[in-house]
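Protein in question filed below.

…
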Amino acid sequence: MDGNNNFEQLLQVLNSSSFVTMTDLKGKIMYANEKFCELSGYSQPELLGKDHRILNSGLHTKEFFKGMWDRIKDGQVWTGEIQNKKKNGDIYWVQSTIAPIFGINKEIINFVSITFDITEMKKAQMTLIESSRLASLGEMASGIAHEINNPLTIILARVSLLKRKLERNDKPDVIKADLDIIEKTVYRISNIVSGLRNLSRDNTKDPLEVFQLKKLIEETQELFKQKLRNKDISYEFCCPDNIEVKAKSLQLSQVMVNLVNNSIDAIEKLDEKWIKILIEEKDNKCQISIIDSGKGIPSEIAQKLMTPFYTTKGPGKGTGLGLSLSKKMIEESKGRFFYDNSKSNTTFCIELPIPRKEKIVA
């Protein structure tokens, strides 16, 4: 396997999952992959030699783009959300990461942009805000840049590293190891985006279903793990294998995200900051406990927690619907949602039925 084949493998991984362009130092497009052409509506001949102003929707200010260019010309990576306009005039949103490519003498020779279409997430965000459905989901949608910034940075770092390895004609197995990391990271981004899209859709008419609880929570936690790291909050998840519950899976994910976000808001300024999700079986029921390092909620406030539009958060930080909707969602799954005032730390509990398994008669 030679260097060219390795580079083609790298392009194949990126081209199959994202929209990729490369420009010269003046911002003129030198390369645009097929997915980018499909998204923008422009053919390669129409794009080559042009700059990204051909996609300008008019939403962003000159200062916005100046800040972007100042950063990448300084040799740094820029990440942000951009509203673009297709050839036919349709508006779309992308999450874009732009990075300089360095030559052998460490001078900037090109810029590469790797973007993901987040139009549906932006639409979902607006729908959530307008309908006041679980305000925390609106926060997750608007903060998606933080969730995928780290994996995108990993990809860009590996791309730059691979370029140098190819120039040195490193061994194929060394190149393949980097390609494997890039592929795994791409799948992680895909899971985050897919999870948020599913979480944001209307699922009120979904049927009850039997599913593996551990797997669901492992997928859901991808939506708040980065936020926990950003706030320097330690996190623990403990769940026995093979516990099945019967519920509405997406509604349970919504409730979990809402509760963890509430905990983050409550403890982010404490000296001791941790959140635990513990799962245990009790009397043919499964209990999910979301516990944080807070020292509990005063009884006069705890009595009002499930009341619609009641909130202890500051202006603009909550609608007061999160807990009342969480309670309603869990009850739709024939479960119980409550605040456990018997614990020394702040604890919210979800009880869900465990489906009965038919006994096999020998």
Observations:
- Residues 132-136, 315-321, 358-362 have pLDDT under 50 and may be disordered.
- The radius of gyration is 24 Å.
